[in-house]
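HUMAN: I'm a chemist; might I ask for a sequence paired with its structure tokens?

ASSISTANT:
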Amino acid sequence: KEPTSCLGQQRPEGSTQQQGLIMAVTSFLCGLVTFHLLAEGGAFSAPFSTRSVSVSANPGGPGVTIFGRSQRSTLLRESSDDSAGDEGEQDWRLFRAKLVASEKQADADSSKADGSSSEKGGAAVDESDLDGLGALFKEGDAEQFTPLDESQWAYDSGSVIETGAVILGGVEQEFGFGLRQQYFHKVVMLILDHKEGTFTKGIILNRPSDRMLEDDVNEGLKWRVWFGGDVQGLDSILPDIVCLHSLKSQEAIDCSTKVIKDIQSTNFDDAKALVKKGLAKCEDFWLMAGYAGWGPGQLAGEIDRKSWYMCATSSDTLLKELARQSQVVDPSHAGIETWETLMKMIGRQEVASKLSGNFDDLMLKEWSQASLVKDDDGKVGLARNPIGGAAIPSEVDSLMEDLQMSQRVQAGTLLRASSAERSPFLLTKQELHKGLLLILNDDDTKATVGCMIHLVASKSVEVRRKDRSKADVNIRYGGEFGIKGQNPLLWIHCSKKLRDAGIGTPLGSSAFSTVTQDDAELAISSDIASPDDFIVTSGVSIFPKIGRETLAREVKRGIFEIVDRARQEEAFKTLQTQAKLSPFTLDESIRKARKAWELCGNAEEPAGKEGPASETPGFDETDDRMVFNTDTPVSELAEDASRKWVATFLLGMPTI
């Protein structure tokens, strides 16, 4: 007689090990079914990764069905009843993890069944395997689902979004986080709150910083700050500070919100109060400043585009990683190791290793250097001067210098982006790296308006000469703000001949003049001007005047340099030789833009020093010319970032 399961159903053919596993899972499910049927008399199902288990009442007796990938299921949410206790939560989360692991093992066994000899007999019992996960793996199978020890597990949870889930930064999307929001590259985030159809809030777990926050309640204490996200960080008017902890005292529980088992969150004031009462130490908390937020459906859409991977993991896994980062991790490493650990645990180690040390990794490390790490003066983040240089002058002297500089930054002034070896436009506004900015207007109180003239785009405008032949004039990217009106294009010339002929409006006392499109086309069709006399730009760059933060102050700090009038015309002519942007002209266009930039510099300006990597074993972590722990010069990375910006935003080809 064929052996039967505990429900009297005929057992399917397969290995003895798989049959035993199915019996164990079935027995566990029977217990859950009995409890839920007695309590509610209904049915439930639970998703895990891309599969589901459904258990339902059966008129002829309880039944258990294990469905495959194609079946839809309804998420069994954790009970909101606080009386359920931590043990129930622990059982469910661990049980769901076991189901994922068991299905992976079942798949592996099925794939080996045809044409191969299966092992006979049951699996040996390991008394040290406290949670039962270890028994689900044969030797060599743990790479797909790897508990670091008995209390640590993680698995890919597909697209399941819930409080306590972990978000891992995706690396397979075409447009990553190298140019913008580098802190999201290879990020590990914990979802603190998820309300379907309303809002999702998460905090970053792998960005510790060197920044310390003074305690205004406990004298002499300082709290280490972690970068929790880009919304309401420490530098905002209303910072949002979350303190994670695993304290078990009743006082700590009463003032906290449970995220998952053994991990709770509280606010900074309550954390300080617990320390004041002697119920905790500041080292018991991880202080996260800022958060990441998503509106209705936003996170789900980003998951579909592979911007993120969703992960379910044990609290022990997270707590041990937080503790490791607190004690031994240099913020310069940017938390990449934590991301790699979890990627390996969910079976994505091949993707992680393939994209190690790429452009986005280097940009993340540079963001960490600029935002998380102390400089030689002990400054962290926004307090650091990207250029460096002289000491800060007195307030009166500084005001006088600002006034003098503002008188020099006027309409017609041509600015050249900094020649500093460490570009101020590495992490943001890469389009300005080694660029040229022509000032169009300077309002004393509101803003300075200019346009970039070095970035040729992939479009052109057609004009007709006097003989009715057609000619194309390339359009350039002038800035992110569009010009309203029927003629949104700005025509610029640098010709004395046209200026003497009254073509255009001079920009101050400079060699530049602006021309309306109608006047430019009329001058060309009348043979007064040639199409090659003009540069045409679309959009402008606006620099608001907020307090003392003005474009003139940026010039004073060395972020921009004023170009002598004697050098402007030659640089302008060089830019006019750029061809319309395409995949084939990209590098040549950038080369000519750099040539024009160099022509605008001082003749005695020394060439930049990139320097080779350290000749000693390993990397010289003190060499500021190199990206941390690599042999890549920062100046080379800035060039790569600038090129990638052009390829992404002007060509729409980020991977070229």
Notes: The first strand starts at residue 44 and ends at 48.
